[in-house]
């Protein structure tokens, strides 16, 4: 075969390597590119910087409870747009479809290390884990159930939204209601353990999340009432490094321990065994 001078034969284009979407994720903290399957094996924690990714409530149920089972309390109440807040009804439907939950909380009876407990978990995937009237009532119902049955209460929180603004004062009332129920639980000497995950903020943190007899937090979780940027703008000062993160709050006595996700179950079992020693 002959070619004209100055011209080269056409080369076959190399086949493009197609990488499916969703195989890699970027760490929100250090920026490391992480293989999704490896991230799952590592319980959704970054192997480089230990950042704990948010995971839904049902994953925590599978991770923490015996056989990953929760005998759920029926959700007898349904959230209504009582204030006629614009697009609230549509947002509720969107949240339900996205999270596969009726509301931003799951609660029920379970066994943890063989010990019967009432277990509650809020889910960030449902409107930021915010506390509306139904969420507050479910938490209050769980507290009452633990008091009636005289069994420990464990609540895991993931709420960046705090009290749900679309319900106004009805949402804020849940802070007082859940706190009052916890006071009765304390009078009955029933153990209450809270597990705070990233982020636990605003009305949730200012009520039942911060009232545990023992407060555990995942590493690096943002915990507080108002976010650090708002505080800096309000006081006109730069906040200390790590302000409102788990480690900072442990150092300053607001929480009792910081526990890696892989050690949460064993830690809870150990605490329950100590608290439930029969005298």
From TrEMBL:
InterPro entries: AcCoA_carboxyl_beta, Acetyl_CoA_COase_Trfase_b_su, ClpP/crotonase-like_dom_sf, COA_CT_N, Znf-ACC. GO terms for biological process: fatty acid biosynthetic process; malonyl-CoA biosynthetic process. It is an enzyme of class 2 (transferase). GO terms for molecular function: acetyl-CoA carboxylase activity; ATP binding; carboxyl- or carbamoyltransferase activity; zinc ion binding. Its cofactor is Zn(2+). Zn(2+) binds at residues 27, 30, 46, 49. Binds 1 zinc ion per subunit. It is found in: Cytoplasm. Its main location: cytoplasm. Its EC number is 2.1.3.15. It catalyses: N(6)-carboxybiotinyl-L-lysyl-[protein] + acetyl-CoA = N(6)-biotinyl-L-lysyl-[protein] + malonyl-CoA. Acetyl-CoA carboxylase is a heterohexamer composed of biotin carboxyl carrier protein (AccB), biotin carboxylase (AccC) and two subunits each of ACCase subunit alpha (AccA) and ACCase subunit beta (AccD). This is Acetyl-coenzyme A carboxylase carboxyl transferase subunit beta.
